[in-house]
């Protein structure tokens, strides 16, 4: 009898970060085995070390082929790249070596998905500075995936419960972000948002588009981008049959979206979307000096393969302490399964 659960490649992220820890902790949840066949991609000794300092009741099974993974609860199958000298690894420190390991792990996972050996990918956090120190000039996971899959039209989607946010631009300066507010780019982003909502089971998604300027330009008083680029993109999207509203000032859009008025939000730049998104999913405990909750999933749209990710950073300051939350990793796995199932049903 064939096993219909998807095989998901889960990267350990930066080996000096909380990435290995949140990956290992996710495997203590039996529910993920009901939904998928999880496989960590990385270095088996790093995962063994995470199991040790987190005091987890788990075994590690290092494999060199996906076919050798056993996918049984109580055991972490690791597609072992053997690319870390554990004695040289300093937790919580950025380095070219850690950056290169993180980068090579992501590329290996992409290759497994492109070859059809795994059904989807879930990524742990990477440190952009460490990756740059290693000589890999990518601004983030999204751009690495786009490059190695040959994808031209792509975007980052953030999901936390009913809040879904997509960006016209992400990892660029604010000055560059303003220059990227162009009709065609906005229209592509609206279309990606619509497709993503459909893939997540929303039949006729209601999409809201933010303005760039305060008060969405206020009729041209505070800027010209709304009149010349954003409104024409919205009008074109409506003419194509999409249910789109805007431009709406960001400070008005998000209270309504969080309240359920919209199924998807198209924003113009990184922080315009990330700040309200993290206000919903992240909870800081000042007394304990740690995040009590770190929820939210990052999905890359437009790719030929499935990619979901935690939407938190490497948290180097707590790496190796065993206190990192696996909440976002569990959600990322859940959404990868959901995307796989909807993809299969659409065939």
Automatic annotation (TrEMBL):
Gene3D superfamilies: Isopropylmalate Dehydrogenase. The keyword NAD applies. Pfam families: PdxA. GO terms for molecular function: metal ion binding; NAD binding; oxidoreductase activity. The keyword rRNA-binding does not apply. InterPro entries: PdxA_fam (IPR005255). Keywords: Metal-binding, NAD, Oxidoreductase. PANTHER family: 4-HYDROXYTHREONINE-4-PHOSPHATE DEHYDROGENASE, D-THREONATE 4-PHOSPHATE DEHYDROGENASE. This is 4-hydroxythreonine-4-phosphate dehydrogenase. It comes from Dyadobacter psychrophilus.
């Amino acid at each position: 009898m064939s096993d219909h659960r998807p095989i998901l490649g889960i990267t350990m992220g930066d080996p000096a970060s909380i990435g290995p820890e949140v990956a290992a902790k996710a495997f203590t949840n039996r529910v993920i085995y009901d939904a998928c066949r999880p496989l960590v991609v990385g270095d088996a000794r790093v995962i063994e070390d995470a199991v040790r300092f987190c005091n987890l009741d788990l075994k590690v099974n290092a494999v060199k082929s996906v076919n050798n993974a056993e996918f049984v609860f109580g055991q972490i199958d690791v597609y072992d790249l053997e690319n870390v000298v554990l004695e040289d690894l300093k937790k919580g420190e950025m380095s070219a070596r850690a950056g290169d390991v993180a980068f090579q792990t992501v590329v290996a996972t992409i290759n497994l998905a492109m070859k059809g050996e795994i059904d989807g990918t879930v990524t742990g956090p990477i440190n952009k500075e460490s990756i740059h120190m290693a000589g890999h000039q990518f601004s983030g996971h999204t751009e690495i995936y786009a490059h190695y899959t040959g994808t031209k039209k792509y975007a980052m989607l953030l999901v936390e419960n009913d809040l879904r946010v997509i960006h016209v631009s992400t990892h660029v300066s604010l000055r560059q972000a303003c220059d990227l507010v162009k009709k065609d780019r906005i229209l592509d982003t609206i279309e990606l948002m619509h497709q993503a909502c459909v893939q997540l089971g929303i039949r006729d998604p209601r999409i809201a588009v933010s303005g760039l300027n305060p008060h969405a330009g206020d009729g041209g008083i505070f800027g010209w981008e709304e009149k010349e680029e954003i409104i024409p993109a919205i009008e074109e999207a409506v003419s194509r049959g999409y249910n789109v509203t805007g431009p709406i000032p960001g400070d008005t859009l998000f209270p309504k979206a969080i309240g359920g008025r919209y199924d998807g939000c198209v924003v113009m730049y990184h922080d315009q979307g990330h700040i309200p998104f993290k206000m919903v999913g992240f909870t800081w405990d000042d007394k304990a000096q740690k995040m009590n909750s770190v929820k939210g999933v990052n999905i890359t749209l437009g790719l030929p393969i499935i990619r979901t990710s935690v939407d938190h950073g490497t948290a180097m300051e707590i790496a190796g302490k065993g206190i990192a939350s696996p909440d976002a990793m569990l959600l990322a796995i859940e959404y990868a399964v959901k995307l796989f199932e909807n993809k299969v049903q659409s065939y």
